[in-house]
Amino acid sequence: xxxxxxxxxxxxxxxxxxxxxxxxxxxxxxxxxxxxxxxxxxxxxxxxxxxxxxxxxxxxxxxxxxxxxxxxxxxxxxxxxxxxxxxxxxxxxxxxxxxxxxxxxxxxxxxxxxxxxxxxxxxxxxxxxxxxxxxxxxxxxxxxxxxxxxxxxxxxxxxxxxxxxxxxxxxxxxxxxxxxxxxxxxxxxxxxxxxxxxxxxxxxxxxxxxxxxxxxxxxxxxxxxxxxxxxxxxxxxxxxxxxxxxxxxxxxxxxxxxxxxxxxxxxxxxxxxxxxxxxxxxxxxxxxxxxxxxxxxxxxxxxxxxxxxxxxxxxxxxxxxxxxxxxxxxxxxxxxxxxxxxxxxxxxxxxxxxxxxxxxxxxxxxxxxxxxxxxxxxxxxxxxxxxxxxxx
Length: 392
Hints:
Blueprint: H1 2-14, H2 18-34, H3 39-55, H4 59-75, H5 80-90, H6 99-110, H7 117-137, H8 146-173, H9 183-198, H10 202-227, H11 234-244, E1 250-253, H12 259-265, E2 272-274, H13 286-293, H14 300-311, E3 316-319, H15 344-362, E4 365-369, E5 385-389
Parallel strand pairs: 1-2, 1-3
Antiparallel strand pairs: 3-5, 4-5
Helix pairs in contact: 1-2, 1-3, 1-4, 2-4, 3-4, 3-8, 7-8, 7-9, 8-9, 11-12
């Protein structure tokens, strides 16, 4: 989507017309509606277009370009109240964003297919900026094609704007990131690099093509095994529990956010819950979790159900990693009165430890229920199943 936006914005810069501007505005709206963080890339493309138009004193084209960005921005206005209300729930995840940690996270994404590839990305970005600046400084050179200079300026400006604006957004959001969060940024940067470097000297464009071919040749054999990996084993777990878990059994899914995947696949008769018990698992309901974190003993209903299930000779199935420790778990005061404030991670760990301690002290039998998989499973959602029964 952003690649198309980039091309259409450039078309408006070069030949402004109602139809091309309308099409670019439509793509910009679709882009931010699909993923609101794309707004930063729309912003970068529009700023780049305005800079190019300003250098050529084409103010009409500049206004058309500004209109693209404004149209996308206006389309997001209805979401502002929703985003504002969501900030209250996001307190649970706001651990702060450090640029050093962000660099470590994005390195996991750009260090593919081999360790050290991140420095190739850095080198290409620096090379593109150098090419863009040097081309702009030589703008008076009559041997240079006018359109060539402008397209290099367009790509360089978009690159320079998108990187810090995206970084500032992450800093202001104060949320942790994962490697896949940077995929839209990487896609936009690749377009900028291609525009700038392929428009420069022949040796640079030839080098770029060679690097791309070598990277692709290495990436295929390295990435092929990863493509065969399952992204979750929750469907396999749910299939087994649909057959094995009786209506009198009880299923616990931990951590709580895995309940969304379990709810998608599980269709059995046994009741189930997460730690703590939440009323909705269609999406990750941080607002409901926040209420539970403020309670003195949010697991009491779950512990009572586990006790009743085991005493009635039924089984408890635990989906997820539960520490089985004979030491009592630590006590956390209701949020935000503990030292962890609103962070949900420590509370989730303690809730798991509470269930584990209860099982160790009261269940007479426990064992791992095998969930075999022919392929590797993504570590983010590769959960074991613990089967517990008996009472003492």
